[in-house]
Specification:
Belongs to the Orn/Lys/Arg decarboxylase class-II family. LysA subfamily. Its EC number is 4.1.1.20. It holds the Pfam family Orn_DAP_Arg_deC. The protein is of the alpha/beta class. Helix content is about 30%, strand content about 25%. The protein has two domains: about 240 residues, TIM Barrel (Alpha-Beta Barrel), CATH 3.20.20.10; about 130 residues, Lyase, Ornithine Decarboxylase, Chain A, domain 1, CATH 2.40.37.
Length: about 400
Amino acid sequence: MLDSQLLKIAEDFGSPVYVYDAEKIEFQYHRLTNAFKNVKKLKLNYAVKALSNISILKLFKKLGSGIDTVSIQEVQLGLAAGFSPEQIIFTPNGVSLSEIEEAAKLGVKINIDNLSILEQFGTKHPNVPVCIRINPHVMAGGNANISVGHIDSKFGISIHQIPHILRIVENTKMHINGIHMHTGSDILDIEVFLYASEILFETAKQFKDLDFIDFGSGFKVPYKAGDIETNIEELGEKLTTRFNNFCKEYGKDLTLAFEPGKFLVSESGSFLTHVNAVKQTTSTVFAQVDSGFNHLIRPMLYGSHHDIVNISNPNGRERFYTVVGYICETDTFGNNRRINEINEGDVLCFRNAGAYCFSMASNYNSRFKPAEILWYNNEAHVIRERETMEDILKNQVQIDFSTKKKAAAAK
């Protein structure tokens, strides 16, 4: 969508506000499915944690996607959005056996990444099919916080523990219907991904009655002009050939599954803020906006980059600004950014704000969470209202401190 349209949304709905472009989401979804069009059975399961608004989930359902969930609440949200249980896979980490059992009762696909939980679940529910998450011990991802397939990761069951898995399966007679891995986000080198895939293929040979192999996701999107991204088309061509050959060797047409989140929604999102003040110090010019890391924590949490554009003054001369928020501690969105001249009242747009932005927002400093807008069919649709003080107080229980302490009972 155009910056002029974003500017109008900021004027109509106020700020801060998240805006998502449905057309970009659809483009990314079809780009990925087209890259793997020569796979007989392909299933994309959108990773709900990236952006969990129910209207976004309904959009993915309309596109034909399934969903990947990591909590029982995301499972329930998916069901509320109209997904059938078989369209949902539950891939948690570190949750209790009871939460996994609750998901299983709802009929969704179960993915387990812990030997102890696998044995307990298989012993109690041997007839419930289970997918197993493998840790391939491959370091992939753009940041240590989003690399989850290496040897020190808490995710997955180590490939060196395959004999333990096989023993549990034999003892419990449980049915393993899928093998899964997720190496991490921001994959730069597809050869690393393909190497990890070979480990998954070798593991899959150990299980004779699979329905699908899930290769996770983590495909990188560009964060700024000239930035590199995962070559989806090349990956699609190479992995399709290898997967189809494996299916012939296996003697069955398996489903190739992915669970993309960021790849599908990141570029669709724009985060709009107004500039409260421009503050000149002896060394820096600060642009102070009406938001903070309570609404967009990724830059402070792990140094993520979001392009920042002054959509109010697109033709102004460029100057250097450090863009900061209003939280009362270090709250920096970008240091020494080259941005068209900023004046108080201007609207700044943060790009790539569709994934892990609103979903990680909080009420820190007792600030309200922003509204969310979906740009669909050339029209702005409110898909989440801006919070109010009533929302802040809703679940708080106030004690009446005016009453006197009851006298101690007589002995």
